[in-house]
Design goal:
It contains 14 helices and ten strands. It is an alpha/beta fold. It has two domains: about 15-40 and about 210-385, Multidrug efflux transporter AcrB transmembrane fold; about 50-205, no CATH class. The strands form four sheets. A four-stranded antiparallel beta sheet has the order 3-4-2-7. A two-stranded parallel sheet has the order 1-8. A hairpin with a 3-residue loop joins strand 9 (about 390) and strand 10. The longest helix is centred in the last third of the chain and has 33 residues, at about 305-340. It starts with 14 loop residues before the first helix and ends in a 13-residue tail after the last strand.
């Protein structure tokens, strides 16, 4: 299937303009990251504690910020999370100096004092674990199963209650607890008298110490850098150095442009995002290799044709394949971006923007940089823009015995 046939577009005619345009976009992104601090670095790299909370009623973000500030976390970042009406918020507090455990316990204690006043030491079914709930039931034995069978029996009951809580996110009434499989009337009555349903639940709680965060940040950067270098070496061996330079410049361009747009969009930069950028590098290289492989084939067929003309011919010949590949990939990444939910949205954003930028760079960045490298340091020098020297009236100059044209296998 071909969407674009027999095109003859001079893609390299305005190569200087497109390179300047890309550099301007990269500069805007870098200024946003390093000057304005727009990159929303997650706790994976920055360190600290991140909690996702679900409330029984819509919480006031400013009130939560005041509570966190009163607990000593004046730099807490609080934002709504999930779909509208879910009453979920994400709270991120910075590293607590001298503590590897973070400030999660202090934050939850402050929230308890505000949203669950007078609760005393009663077990909170909305936040307790399976072991604590099973221990309470086994000690009271409301079903009268006896000491020998109490532990295993109530562990099953506790697991059933927590499974329902996981689906709901938060119990808002005791009828929801009573509806869990295996929960008898006696168990329900005991819990209502001995336990409580708090006003909020902790959906997730993550803590990353400063040393771990710095190590993850360093490894994430090295992963991207080494992947770029390894791909350059591969293309250098598989094709030529000039093509390796062009491919790496295109991939580096894709990463820098995408990370700039990512920062401006405000998504959280974490380990999942690094995985997305590594996938982006692989996609970009794959698209560029297809173009360069066609360039090499045309170099064999049209030995006296200028390199710029060969590249234009090759880009036009692979244009249909490039558009089809980008289009089908965008269908998948775009679906994840708009329908995948908050957890996967950052990853999907990188892939969606990366596919668009990667397709652009395979045409307007990779080939121009390969051509520039050839003009500056290649064997052909200025011959990159002119036919090879001819002997006589238009006849190609005879090759030296045993000589092989650069780019020929």
């Amino acid at each position: 299937m071909q969407l674009l046939r027999d095109t003859n577009i001079d893609f390299l005619k305005y190569r200087r303009f497109w390179i300047a345009f890309s550099l301007a976009v990269i500069a805007v992104g870098l200024v946003a990251i390093f000057y304005h601090g727009k990159l929303n670095v997650g706790i994976d790299f920055a360190g600290g504690t991140q909690a996702t909370l679900k409330f029984s009623e819509r919480p006031d973000v400013q009130a939560l910020r005041d509570i966190a500030g009163g607990a000593g976390f004046r730099e807490a970042v609080i934002q709504r999370f999930g779909e509208v009406g879910t009453n979920e918020v994400m709270v991120r507090i910075p590293i607590v100096e001298g503590s590897e455990e973070g400030g999660g316990a202090d934050l939850l204690a402050a929230l308890d004092a505000r949203y669950n006043p007078g609760a005393g030491g009663a077990l909170d079914v909305n936040r307790s674990g399976s072991d604590a709930l099973a221990a309470l039931l086994a000690e009271r034995d409301p079903d009268g199963v006896g000491a020998a069978a109490a532990v295993s029996h109530y562990e099953g009951v506790a697991d059933a209650i927590l499974a329902v809580r996981k689906d709901l996110g938060l119990f808002t009434g005791w009828s929801q607890v009573s509806g869990a499989p295996g929960v008898s009337g006696a168990v329900s009555s005991l819990l209502q008298s001995q336990a409580r349903l708090g006003s909020f639940a902790v959906l997730s709680l993550e803590n990353v110490g400063p040393q771990v965060g710095a190590e993850l940040r360093q490894r994430g950067v090295l992963a991207v850098v080494f992947s770029l270098l390894a791909m350059m070496v591969y293309i250098w061996i598989r094709f030529e150095l000039r093509f390796g330079i062009g491919a790496v410049m295109a991939s580096l361009h894709d990463v820098l442009v995408t990370v700039g747009l990512f920062a401006l969009a405000g998504f959280e930069f974490n380990l999942t995002t690094v995985a997305a950028f590594l996938a982006l590098v692989g996609y970009s290289i794959n698209d560029t290799v297809v173009v360069f492989d066609r360039v090499r084939e045309n170099m064999r067929k049209h030995r006296t044709e200028p390199l710029m003309q060969l590249m234009n011919r090759s880009i036009n010949q692979t244009l249909s394949r490039t558009v089809l590949t980008a289009g089908t990939t965008l269908l998948a990444s775009g679906t994840l971006l708009f329908l995948g939910g908050e957890v996967i949205r950052g990853f999907a954003f990188v892939m969606t923007i990366g596919v668009i930028v990667g397709t652009y760079s395979s045409i307007f960045i990779a080939a121009p940089f390969a051509l520039l490298w050839e003009q500056l340091v290649g064997r052909r020098g200025e011959a990159a823009d002119k036919p090879a020297a001819t002997a006589g009236k238009g006849a190609p100059a005879p090759a030296k015995p045993g000589a092989r044209r650069r780019g020929q296998s």
